[in-house]
């Protein structure tokens, strides 16, 4: 294609140099400085602020390459953006080759220049004109999102100026995705389109649509109408959290589904925004909704009801029944033509083998195929489905469980149980999408649980999302090429509304967008925090119900055992507001003591902290209690080590003066699986003791029980111990949510140097041995 003569030499130079896009610390610093006045998320590969600005006036015109309908559609979208910002909608006209134009915005393709790939672009804003160039319309569309961020966040009427800037940009990863579960809770087409718009504004290119699960089948299959008429509806939904015991349900019939015409409409809408929609049809597990409609494809024959409860269920598709494969192939034969992308997600996760182990058909299948175990049977299942999908010109991706028993030849892996599955797949030369629960499960709480709405649990603040690195350094350079990118997952067990989806997605989507777009060496957390200040304004302008948890203060208390003091650090993920605090338990106000640096506390204190801006409370008040008792920082010996997943801050978790919350994953608990807590404290000298209190967590739904009994013994010399307290712990309560229980041992002025606390692990009902969790926290000696 002939190059238009109105493109400036500076832009052509930028295009010519675009091959060397990787930067380093110096480049990151330049980007940070440029971003002081220009706030772009994700951060571009190269950004240079210029002088002056381009004024959008009634005379402004959008010019496109002649006879290019895709560019025309993008031009019209830009015109609509400008209308929202200024009240004026510039016309879209074909550019005239060789005729310089002032006051225009030019959208053009530069086909001879390919160093930016299909999604890269360059943007040159000058006082005289704006030029957005790319190799493909998709690149132009992505550049359009950058122009949108140069506009003021507030909508209105009047003159608007775009700051002069040069941008050379392309994404780091091919797969930049967001997932949405519409099975646990259903969302209408209008919201799905809005969700896709959100992805586009963050330069995402993949929407993973989780359409089927135990709690509802959400896509019309014409050959099997009962999938939606029966499988699309459940007779109630769990009330509260899964860990609440006993489980309670409402009686409201709940459901819905998308017709194939609606699916086509959504896919078309996404295509216009250069987003690929990846459908997920779960198999062989998470299939109860399908089996409720067609129980003949199960191992037992049913009957089944669409699940009201969350979790993992034993009834899955029968791998020994040939008709199961006919059914699933029929389903996929209807699903695949609706989605023009070349990837189909087949689930593959959390498929218990209980039914297969006792199913005559499944066992006969294993014998006939020479399969050694049920994991190999699942591999057989997945490989059969893969062959069918491949025969239709598409490929499968599945959760990392599809690695078990042997990976299908052409399958890609979505790694969610950490990064290990992705590493294993990449080493086998299979494509990988990283989606570890530790960093990108957006159904996890983004603030302290007590300050957040009901959620799955966990703790995933904005800063942790930003720290996500999809490419493990343990892979070789060749193996790293199989990492396609990453995505965040929004599972909706505890997300019943559109507003709640937005709350859980934002602002964390912005952090993920930058992780997946910007070169790793150019990511800068401090710069991102600053740029988020304007991004929050954009969210407000979009009408997004975003979370303000980043404005909550996160107190960090670190014990100094040698000095028996505690270092207090107050941090938050948002930039801008100042942090204030009190130490006496009073509620902080705008005039409270201002936090400037970490400080020491040598005694007991109740720390309350909050962020304020212009006298306005920006987040919620955080509270941490610090109790300085006789055993704080005392030498401590544990007979049994805690489980590697729940080590808290080490053994001193039991003697740091801090109590954990009802969230077992808050880092303040030691977790013992199937073993007892036996802690021996050395008070260093004979000490008068009146009370020993030990703290335990009960969360029945998570398998965490109170100890069966607690014993306290004391000694003067560390050799001979006297038991001063021994009692069973009252029977396990089952009526409430996770709660903290204190066991108090009173004694009369006993002189001792050593204290030993033993909490015996409770035995789960019907279990042959104690394989339950025991969670212990502070041991208080007074």
Summarize the structure.
Residues 650-761 form the F5/8 type C domain. With 782 residues, the protein is α/β, with parallel strands linked by helices.
Strand count, sense and barrel status of the largest sheet are: 8 strands, parallel, barrel
Query: What is the percent of helical residues?
Result: 10-25%
Strand content: 25-35%
Identify the CATH class of the largest domain: Alpha Beta
- Helix count equals 19
Protein name: beta-N-acetylhexosaminidase
InterPro entries: Beta_hexosaminidase_sua/sub (IPR025705), FA58C (IPR000421), Galactose-bd-like_sf (IPR008979), GH (IPR017853), GH29D-like_dom (IPR059177), Glyco_hydro_20_cat (IPR015883), Hex-like_dom2 (IPR029018), HEX_bac_N (IPR015882)
EC number: 3.2.1.52
Enzyme class: hydrolase
């Amino acid at each position: 294609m002939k190059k238009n003569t109105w493109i400036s030499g500076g832009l052509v130079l930028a295009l010519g140099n675009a091959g060397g896009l990787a930067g380093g610390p110096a480049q990151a610093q330049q980007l940070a400085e440029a971003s002081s006045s220009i706030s772009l998320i994700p951060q571009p590969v190269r950004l240079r602020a210029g002088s002056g600005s381009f004024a959008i006036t009634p005379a402004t015109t959008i010019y496109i390459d002649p006879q290019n309908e895709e560019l025309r559609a993008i031009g019209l979208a830009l015109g609509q953006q400008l209308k929202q910002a200024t009240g004026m909608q510039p016309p879209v006209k074909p550019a005239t080759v060789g005729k310089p134009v002032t006051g225009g915005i030019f959208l053009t393709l530069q086909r001879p220049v390919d160093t930016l790939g299909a999604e890269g672009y360059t943007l040159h804003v000058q006082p005289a004109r704006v030029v957005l160039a790319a190799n493909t319309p998709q690149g132009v569309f992505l550049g359009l999102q950058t122009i949108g961020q140069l506009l003021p966040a507030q909508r209105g009427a009047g003159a608007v100026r775009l700051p002069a800037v040069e941008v050379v940009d392309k994404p780091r990863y091919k797969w930049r995705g967001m997932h949405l579960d519409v099975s646990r809770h259903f969302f209408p087409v209008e919201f799905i389109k809005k969700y896709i718009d959100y992805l586009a504004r963050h330069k995402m290119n993949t929407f993973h649509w989780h359409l089927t699960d135990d709690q509802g089948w959400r896509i019309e299959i014409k050959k099997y109408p009962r999938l939606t008429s029966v499988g699309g509806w459940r007779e109630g939904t769990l009330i509260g959290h899964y860990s609440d015991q006993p489980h309670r349900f409402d009686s409201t019939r709940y459901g819905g589904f998308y017709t194939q015409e609606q699916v086509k409409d959504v896919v078309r809408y996404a295509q216009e925004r250069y987003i690929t929609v990846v459908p997920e049809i779960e198999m062989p597990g998470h299939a109860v909704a399908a089996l409720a409609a067609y129980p003949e494809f199960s191992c037992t024959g049913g009957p089944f009801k669409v699940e009201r409860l969350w979790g993992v269920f034993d009834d899955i598709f029968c791998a020994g029944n040939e008709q199961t494969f006919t059914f699933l192939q029929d389903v996929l034969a209807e699903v695949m033509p609706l989605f023009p992308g070349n990837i189909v997600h087949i689930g593959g996760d959390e498929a218990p083998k209980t039914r297969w182990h006792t199913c005559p058909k499944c066992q006969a299948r294993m014998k006939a195929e020479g399969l050694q175990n049920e994991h190999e049977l699942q591999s057989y299942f997945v490989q059969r489905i893969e062959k069918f999908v491949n025969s239709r010109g598409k490929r499968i991706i599945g959760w990392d469980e599809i690695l078990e028993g042997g990976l299908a030849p052409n399958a890609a892996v979505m790694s969610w149980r950490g990064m290990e599955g992705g590493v294993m797949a990449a080493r086998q030369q299979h494509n990988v999408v990283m989606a570890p629960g530790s960093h990108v499960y957006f159904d996890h709480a983004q603030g302290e649980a007590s300050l957040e709405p009901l959620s799955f649990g966990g703790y995933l603040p904005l800063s942790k999302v930003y720290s996500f690195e999809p490419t493990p350094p343990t892979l070789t350079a060749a193996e790293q090429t199989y990492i396609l990118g990453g995505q965040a997952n929004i599972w909706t067990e505890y997300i019943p509304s559109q507003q709640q989806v937005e709350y859980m997605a934002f602002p964390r989507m912005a952090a993920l967008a930058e992780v997946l777009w910007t070169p790793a060496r150019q990511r800068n957390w401090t710069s991102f925090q600053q740029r988020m200040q304007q991004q929050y304004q954009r969210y407000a302008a979009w009408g997004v119900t975003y979370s303000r948890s980043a404005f909550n203060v996160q107190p960090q208390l670190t014990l100094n055992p040698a000095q028996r003091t505690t270092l207090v650090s107050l941090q938050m993920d948002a930039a801008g507001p100042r942090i204030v605090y009190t130490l006496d338990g009073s509620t902080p106000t705008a005039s409270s003591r201002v936090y400037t640096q970490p400080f020491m506390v040598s005694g007991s204190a109740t720390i309350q902290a909050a962020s304020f801006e212009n006298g306005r409370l920006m987040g919620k008040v955080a509270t941490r209690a610090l109790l300085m008792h006789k055993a704080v920082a005392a030498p401590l010996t544990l007979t049994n080590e805690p489980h590697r997943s729940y080590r808290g801050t080490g053994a001193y978790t039991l003697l740091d003066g801090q109590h954990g919350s009802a969230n077992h994953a808050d880092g303040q608990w030691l977790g013992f699986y199937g073993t007892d807590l036996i802690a021996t404290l050395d008070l260093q000298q004979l000490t008068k003791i009146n009370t020993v209190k030990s703290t335990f967590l009960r969360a029945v739904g998570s398998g965490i029980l109170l100890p069966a009994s607690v014993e306290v013994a004391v000694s003067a010399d560390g050799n001979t111990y006297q038991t001063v307290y021994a009692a069973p712990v009252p029977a396990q309560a089952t009526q409430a949510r996770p709660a903290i229980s204190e066991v108090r041992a009173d004694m009369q002025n006993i002189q001792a140097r050593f204290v030993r606390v033993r909490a015996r692990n409770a035995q789960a009902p019907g279990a042959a041995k104690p394989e339950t969790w025991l969670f212990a926290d502070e041991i208080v000696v007074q």
